[in-house]
Specification:
This protein is mostly helical. 73% of the residues lie in helices and 0% in strands. Helix 5 packs parallel to helix 8. The N and C termini lie far apart (42 Å).
Amino acid sequence: MATGKATLVPTQQRSRERFERILASAAELLVEKGSEEFRMSDVVARSGVPFGSLYQYFPDKTAIVGTLAARYDAIGRACVEGELAAVAAVSDVKPALGRIVDGYYRMFADAPVMRAIWQATQADRTLQARDAQEGAHLASLLGDTLARVAPEVDATLRGTFADIAMVLIAAAVRHALVLAPDEAERSLALFKAMLPEIPAGLPSAR
């Protein structure tokens, strides 16, 4: 069964170096060939790590891609946390979301492996599930921020706003990544202008 993560994360230096060599080789192959084309045998050939050691850490390609995804998710999460920490009032929410859009686009644009991971996610249910979990976590971070600056707004509505906002941001960034840079810039600028603001006086959802 695919787990979407490494089964063993070594702590000893030699094993750790081998583990990192596997991931670095897999990242290169993912960019070069795409998730459908590269094989575990390719990772062995590229990394020089024997099959036995490879499978000791990763039972399948999904585990390799999931481990890579988790690393980049941590970078993205730090971006979101940093921007949301600066939100002091409801009026700060929309500008913060705009900066998150820019930050995510830059990360994906600067790291081809992130785009390759996203493409791999579309074709794998296990990776889709972990991607959904990460999206839910980011939405919870936004929801917590809204609770802090707009406690008078119904909690259900805050949660719905947070869910929709993070889903739309992910979709807008992924769409921009398939466009030429100037067109992507225009697309994201328009999207940021369209981002909703949460009114402090929203009625109760009940």
